[in-house]
Design a protein that fits this description.
Chains A, B: Belongs to the peptidase M24B family. Two copies of one chain form a homodimer. Chain A is α+β, with helices and mostly antiparallel strands. Chain A contains eleven helices and 21 strands. In chain A, strand 17 and strand 18 form a beta hairpin. In chain A, helix 4 runs antiparallel to helix 5. The longest helix of chain A is centred in the middle third of the chain and has 26 residues. The radius of gyration of chain A is 24 Å and the shape is elongated.
Amino acid sequence: MTRDRSALDDLLAAAGDDAYCIEAGSADSNQLYLSGFDAPDPFFTAYTGDELAVLVSGLEYGRARKESHADTVARLSSYDYATRAADEGRATALAGVYADFLADLGVESTLVPERFPVGVADGLRDHGVAVDVDRDGVVETLRATKTDEEADAVRRATAANEAAMAAAEDLIADAGVAADGTLLLADDAGEATLTSERVKEAIEVTLLRHGCALDETIVACGADAADPHDRGSGPLAAGEPIIVDIFPREKASKYHSDMTRTFSKGAPSDTVAEWFDLTHEALDAALDAVEPGATGADVHAAACEVYEDAGHPTLRADPDTETGFIHSTGHGVGLDVHEQPGLNPRGGELEAGQVITVEPGLYDPEVGGVRIEDIVIVTEDGYENLTGDYPVELVVE
Amino acid sequence: MTRDRSALDDLLAAAGDDAYCIEAGSADSNQLYLSGFDAPDPFFTAYTGDELAVLVSGLEYGRARKESHADTVARLSSYDYATRAADEGRATALAGVYADFLADLGVESTLVPERFPVGVADGLRDHGVAVDVDRDGVVETLRATKTDEEADAVRRATAANEAAMAAAEDLIADAGVAADGTLLLADDAGEATLTSERVKEAIEVTLLRHGCALDETIVACGADAADPHDRGSGPLAAGEPIIVDIFPREKASKYHSDMTRTFSKGAPSDTVAEWFDLTHEALDAALDAVEPGATGADVHAAACEVYEDAGHPTLRADPDTETGFIHSTGHGVGLDVHEQPGLNPRGGELEAGQVITVEPGLYDPEVGGVRIEDIVIVTEDGYENLTGDYPVELVVE
């Protein structure tokens, strides 16, 4: 994919550093984005403004030359790594090799991301390379605004996500209800219990068949749903809110999507119904605030106001609250499922091309949880809701 | 799971530091292991020898108290994080909050892992906390030796892995062969091509149904197989080596397994058949070398000798070679699919309770690739081969 590195060039010029360096495997999305190279073990990337250079093991050398964005690909053996590692140990040898690699690139000072490993940073400093920390997260900022190609990858992951959500909704809608309220798998002769695990399996198999991988999926019912990060487990129950939050990654592109619906098999309590309507209202209010120039803080405030006006606690009104609206309103989505920009009290100005989720919710262990999450692309005149066609309906049966 | 932290206590005493600290999300396996807390976003863990303390966001506070190993759970809001972040920015505020948290624990100096973020390390140093890098990877060393409970998790992931391998093998064995040698999906009325992607889907659906997640799977045929990290794509062909390398993670425990077989639908070339027999011989030679007190270097040497005696290049004979035996002989498996100990020229003494793969292979773009990988537990008197019952047979039909 095309990379616009002009913000990085500007930052290097302003900071007076010779390069921006990353040492990580491609599970670090800054590394994957800057190098364009997908490899599991840590490797070294240096961007000098003129040149993008990567230093990899012999095992990755051939593939790095074919697949990475680098202008120059070097390998550890060119810096006598094996002998040095045998003499000095792995970590010391690597720092020396990286220092020599930077010397060959004419780099005497470098910016690095906050999460650059301190072992490597201190090792480079010991070799006389100045290492400054980029406190502004320039690569995260670059990543936040998507090219059309990146946005298309998110669209494909979203289509897979909607198919998986429909599979989950169908299982819940078609379920039977036992005398004690437990949901029963519709097509099972033996009346097996419908569990969170069974719904997740349906979701995840659907995602795989649509070319997506996944880390975790949330199908949380009742008290589980009151904790926004609880993945859920065990039997599902009628009349209880069931939060289904799915965040797959398209395997080919590595880009994510993210959406949430809350379902109740049959009528829930009045409180849950009221929470759902209020959360739908908060979603609409937050979406209405999305446009270029508005800040993430503005969007977050719009959701908080709906909840606060109805008398619910929010984190901004009470930083210690454990019930009510206890998370931010949303986040960027891309190579990471949580990335820039944030829709929170510190969220900066939104820009066209950013992909964000909007996901208000209410939580209380006495009641359960309700969350609704759409994923949208910020456009020149507002936003395009990628999950806007998926119904927002609590009761399914 | 029970954690034996005595090696960590010894290290702290020897280094004269007050604590061992990690700042990362649970995708960092050292964090997951030390804190026992599974949360996506970075949080702070401090182990003082007397006390394990974690500092988390309000969103994770309730779950951390229930699920983590920590004696003490604190939250960011107790250190006025929101106000400080609004005033100073996120990174500076976090460093200040972490410094105050450490002051409350009586910590003036800390050891950190090599991959601790330099932004946090430099921030703590600015607040007068001494930060020393643990160059020996003490948490990785602790993780290398498994408890019975950890070993059982690997056994369950291995059982899932064998089921997935059988699904892949069946698809290849049952495939038809088109006139041009392309494999055809056996049960498909329209004679669809059997692709790498289709075999991966069968593998991954099987893994999901056995409670495992997965990041990637390798099904690589022909020239793809000549690159050990190529995941493979496109049509599979008869008479070509197809490397199937599967490395799932059990969802509940987060522990991995890892195994590889190489299959050929029908007879391959004499060269491939000879490579396979030689690789089987290298596997047996390496396995024979596995016992407590032997080093990872010894095991690696045993595999290298088989290949070198037969005239094949190895990395130890030629660090620049791009064909032959171009990776290490194996690695530890646990919370990470690649962890300590390494079976490579620098590999130290093996200990009972370690879980390792043994995976010799040969690669050449002109021929393809062959790899056979078993996963074993080092025992008091040798090893237990967890995948030893899965046949090692090249030709399937």
